[in-house]
Write a structure and sequence with these properties.
mainly alpha; globular; 3-stranded antiparallel sheet
């Protein structure tokens, strides 16, 4: 059995309303029922890694079902290069260090937050 990789599957990250308990929700369009949450986007993604692993293990081992194909890409995560002013880069680096995450994780989270806040527009 091949081991599916978290980074190969697109996920949705959205804020939860106060009536939903607050925090952030992570779900996968290609993995029905797979979800997790956290107080912050970073925590939701980190908790999502565990949920993803458990969902895949249950599907493969207990249910004997194949790993679902991803609807977005077939291997490596997409990559793009973004030129930013040096001052913006410095602020992003400082924020990533403050939060104890990589620059890539911080920027990906910021983009996901923004996309989540504009869902359905």
């Amino acid at each position: 059995m091949s081991k599916p990789k978290f980074d190969n599957y697109p996920f949705d990250l959205r804020p939860l309303s106060k009536t939903e308990g607050g925090g952030w929700l992570i779900t996968w369009p290609d993995l029905p029922g797979c979800m997790s949450d956290g107080e912050t986007p970073e925590e939701a993604i980190q908790n999502g890694r565990s949920a993803f692993a458990a969902w895949m293990a249950t599907r493969q081992t207990k249910l004997g079902l194949p790993v679902p194909k991803t609807s977005v890409h077939t291997g490596k995560p997409a990559r793009f290069v973004l030129r930013t002013p040096q001052s913006m880069h410095a602020r992003l680096v400082a924020q990533a260090q403050k939060e104890g995450v990589s620059l890539n994780t911080l920027v990906t989270t910021l983009i996901a937050e923004n996309l989540g806040s504009h869902a359905g527009i």
